[in-house]
Specification:
The chain is mainly β. It is built from no helices and 33 strands. The strands form eight sheets. Strands 2, 3, 4, 5 and 6 form a five-stranded antiparallel sheet that branches.
Length: 393
């Protein structure tokens, strides 16, 4: 599967069906059509572009399939009502768990896998806590009429963002809970009536690890960032960063007292996203970068607290690097990214050598760079809002 003529450092040909998860040894994990004939597997590829192992799966991955690294295991939600856990070293199955409702997304903390599942038909959301080692259920909690739950966790505080279907009109907001080991206590919630003009989706919250919880809200037709005390729900501040609604998905980054929040910058097209820089303690807006990035998922924070994203022009893709305050540091046009369109890139991640893993529909690429990968225990190279487990990972 490796080629010597590629402009990339290496390429691995495979039909990828999920976002990437990358461990501290630079192995990349993803769901894929492993042979091109609708035979699906969880795959592990090392930093040399070689297959470590693959674990065959029986179901076609759903559109919200998720691969998550949790300690020495890989947890996968890929079918409508099942979650599976594999050994990270050889892909052997450790356990599987059945869900009452459809898998939506999950997070991990303190040897516990938190799974959000819901029934679109019944409008019922269930939050489950599973023991990572055995898959046994610690507790579950039903919340009626909560659609599209997005779960994030910091230590034992769990935040679920979603759409509350009752009472009409629709309301969007968050429910915050506390894991007490054998049960789950509700701490607080806040929901706002939607008054905008277009359909929106709930946005996942992130934590700063110091008692604050951040979330973007566009229920009033404008993009607003809120900060809450994670224990009490008291609002610390809110700041409007744009005067129309956010993109379908937003990305938020927290590091060194600053909060980076993406927003939709092209109201007519709705495909470009820009970002604002806020002081995390006060909410004061220090900078807005409105030149646009193509996709909020292709937005990385490096180990030296720089931000990396791709842009598109008529010749292909170019790469932009910003400091944490939004100052443009560098623009490069790597040879590998010329003559292609950015929409072909699905996900990127940084390995420990500073190179980028890039997934597309048909390839996993390694592009040679000199970035710095965040170390374990600090901010993830993933955005913190979509694919990772929480804002500190």
């Amino acid at each position: 599967n490796n080629t010597t003529s590629s402009k990339y450092k290496w390429e691995y040909k495979i039909k990828i069906k999920s976002k990437l998860a990358v461990d501290q040894n630079d192995n990349a994990y993803f769901l894929a059509d492993s042979d091109g004939n609708d035979n699906y597997a969880l795959c592990s590829v090392n930093k040399a572009g070689q297959l470590n192992w693959k674990a065959d799966i029986s179901n076609y991955p759903s559109s919200n399939a998720q691969v998550m690294i949790a300690g020495d295991k890989v947890v996968v939600g890929y079918s409508w009502d099942k979650v599976y856990c594999y050994n990270i070293t050889d892909g052997s199955l450790v356990w599987d768990a059945s869900l009452t409702y459809s898998f939506n997304n999950m997070a991990y903390a303190n040897n516990t896998v938190y799974i959000a599942s819901y029934s679109a038909y019944d409008g019922i959301f269930k939050l489950l806590a599973l023991d990572l080692s055995s898959g046994s259920q610690k507790w579950n909690k039903n919340v009626s009429q909560l659609d599209y739950p997005k779960v994030s966790v910091n230590n034992n505080i769990i935040c679920v963002a979603g759409k509350d279907k009752e009472p009409y009109p629709y309301q969007y907001g968050i429910i915050v809970l506390k894991d007490n080991g054998s049960n789950c206590d509700s701490l607080w919630s806040v929901f706002k009536e939607y008054t905008g003009n277009a359909s929106i989706m709930p946005h996942k919250a992130i934590f700063d690890g110091q008692g604050q919880l951040f979330i973007e809200d566009d229920t009033n037709g404008k993009t607003v960032v809120y900060s809450y005390n994670e224990q009490t729900g008291i609002e610390n501040w809110h700041t409007e960063i744009n005067d129309f609604e956010a993109a379908k998905h937003v990305a938020m980054l927290y590091s060194q007292g600053q909060l980076i929040a993406t927003y939709r910058s092209d109201d007519s097209w709705g495909i470009e996203n820009s970002f604002s820089v806020l002081d995390a303690s006060s909410g004061s807006l220090s900078n807005s970068v409105s030149e646009g990035i193509h996709d909020e998922n292709i937005f990385l924070l490096t180990g030296d607290n720089n931000m990396v994203t791709y842009r598109q022009d008529n010749n292909g893709i170019y790469l932009k690097q910003y400091s944490l305050d939004g100052t443009l540091l560098n623009t490069t046009k790597p040879e590998y990214a010329q003559g292609i369109v950015l929409s072909s890139y699905n996900d990127i991640a940084i390995n420990s050598e500073g190179n980028l893993y890039i997934s597309t529909a048909n390839y996993l690429y390694c592009a040679e760079h000199s970035f710095i990968k965040p170390v374990s225990g600090t901010w993830s190279s993933i955005t913190g809002n979509n694919a990772n487990t929480n804002s500190l990972n």
